[in-house]
Amino acid sequence: MYFVTICFGHWRLFFIAGNNVMNYAQIYLRNICLLELQKMSVMYKNPHRKHWRSTH
């Protein structure tokens, strides 16, 4: 039973840490997506890179 209580305590800690990691991951991915969208919009508006779709 001692082992079970240790596992349960660690599981709770991992669960809390997991939620934090997921929150950070969502923020991180959102920032990356926003940066990519900004790059794409800049390339799209740039007249020197009209054929940017062919390079991707």
Strand content: under 5%
Order of helices and strands, N to C? HH
Number of helices: 2
Q: Detail the poorly predicted runs.
A: none
Tell me about the largest β-sheet: none
Number of strands: 0
Mean pLDDT: 77
Task: Briefly note the structural class of the backbone.
Answer: mainly alpha
Structure description:
The protein is an all-alpha fold and 56 residues long. It has a domain at 20-47. It is 86% helix and 0% strand. The chain has two helices and no strands. The chain has helices at 2-45, 52-55. The chain is rod-shaped and about 70 Å long. It starts with a helix and ends with a helix. The model has no long low-confidence stretch (mean pLDDT 77).
Keywords:
56 residues, mainly alpha, 2 helices, 86% helix, 0% strand
Topology (SSEs and partners):
Layout: H1 2-45, H2 52-55
Describe, in short, the structure shown:
This protein has 56 residues and is an all-alpha fold. It has helices at residues 2-45, 52-55.
